Amino acid sequence: MNNQLIYNVEDRPKFSKLLVFAIQQVLAVMAATIAVPTIIGLPTQIPAAILGAGVGTIVYLLFTKFKSPVIISSSFAFLDALFCAVTFGYCGIILGAVFAGLVYVIIAIVIHFAGTKWVSKLMPPVIIGPTVALIGLSLAGSAMGDITTATGAAINHSYNLVALLCGLVTFITVVLCSCQKRFKSMKLIPFIIGIGAGYALASIFSAIGYGADVDYLKIINWQPLVQNFVVDGKFTGITAFLDYPRFGLVEGIKEIAEGRVLLTGAGVGEIALAFIPIALVVFAEHIADHKNLGSIINRDLVEGEPGLERTLLGDGVGSIAGTVFGICPNTTYGESVGCVAITRNASISTIFTAAIMCIVLSFISPIMRLLQTIPNCVMGGVCLTLYGFIAVSGLKMFKEVDLNENKNLFTVSAILIAGIGGLAILIPYHVTDGLVDKTIKITSIATALILGICTYAITNALEKREGKEDGEPESLVVGAVAPDATYEVGKSVVREEAAEEPVAEAAPAEEPAEAPVEE
């Protein structure tokens, strides 16, 4: 059984198709990949981030024996930690990535000797399901913020109806290409066609906007592409076509050579406190992504092949390599998993080609600048499908969860409400004049996951200690979801009263046993 995959993991499409499929995977992860260095204030490191994604993915594929088709790239989970590391320069960023990667390596070693059963007990489907759903739901605000943003406008953070139109055209195009059954090729590349349609419509409005000087119609900002060739009226030379990424290792060596290293002993401890807790949380996301991907390709990637030990090593070492050659710690991408699910193309050759393509493209200046001109609204239309898939895939795991049990009901409720409500934990680690001025932030998703694990562990321990009594209500929702349901507590009272009656009263209950005899 291949779960209706068009291309299975071991399948290799024709070379011409392979290139197109790989470009689609690159585009699927591009928005988030270039966003991370921009958010932390290093937009010039976008090519390095793309290079890091390619290198990290190849390392991951090697460790997983080319059996897990997913791209790893810049992780949003480490944003707060990266803000801390940036204050110590590139050496601080690299050190943080090493700390995060080592967490994965240590857990992989523990799994090697202790197995994976403890992981399944710690994070069963009742915890993984809502956590995966929460990841998709938490990204909804980002997607909707992008889909209404005109990147080329003077004030590009205000609501723009034309941008929304371009984003919705992108979304509808992706949906139509994915759902139609007549053209197989369109079904395999819906994101490329969708981005192309959205970009074309945005280009028309932008051309009119720039020609008539109407900011509201300036959806695309072509300035990065223009400046790639001309700066201050002068041609930029060879760098207009080829330029090397300023990846972390090179910049770190420059800091050391020029005596600009800001890292101190206290700084090392600060970075460790910033990265290690986040890495423990990303570990849960790692399991969720691989269980989700496994359900798509109908293979157990956690307890089967390649196994959680190898996927963790691949993610951890790949994250370190991705930072050394790029700029940010990496993690498996839900967007990549979503692309596999929607296109039904799980070919590992596609993922490997996409990784090679990231490395090559990071050196080609015009393409890097062209990718930067894709407007937020178009990528928002794409993310509307990708983030939605992540949420739905988490909800699908609920079929393995019995919500008629109170312990499951409380666990799911805690995760969803804490996560959607934005409950975060701020751990103070530096005080000046009696006031806390530095904190480590455990994100809302991480907090929700921790709360869910604790809730499940407590209720599970209580259940085992006390045991489940006959007649006890199964769930808080009994009666609420079924108005005609008998009040279970009332039943237990009736049973207690009936126990005092003569045994003969129970005789009528025996009559239904004769029914099978008639057959």
Give an overview in words.
This protein is mainly α. Among the domains are: 15-140 and 220-376 and 389-399, no CATH class; 402-466, no CATH class. Helix content is 62%, strand content 5%. It has 21 helices and 6 strands. It has a two-stranded antiparallel sheet with strand order 1-4. Strands 2-3 form a two-stranded antiparallel sheet. It has a two-stranded antiparallel sheet with strand order 5-6. It is globular.
Largest sheet: number of strands, sense, barrel closure: 2 strands, antiparallel
Distance between the termini: 39 Å
Total number of beta strands: 6
What structural class do helix, strand and pairing data support? mainly alpha
Give the averaged pLDDT, no decimals: 83
Which regions contain 5 or more consecutive residues with pLDDT less than 50?
A: 476-501, 503-507, 509-519
What series of H and E elements makes up the topology?
HHEHHHHHHHHHEEHHHEHHHHHEEHH
Q: Please state roughly what percent of the residues sit in beta strands, choosing from under 5%, 5-15%, 15-25%, 25-35%, 35-45% or over 45%.
A: 5-15%
What strand order characterises the main sheet?
1-4
Q: How would you sum up the global shape? A: globular
The radius of gyration over CA amounts to: 27 Å
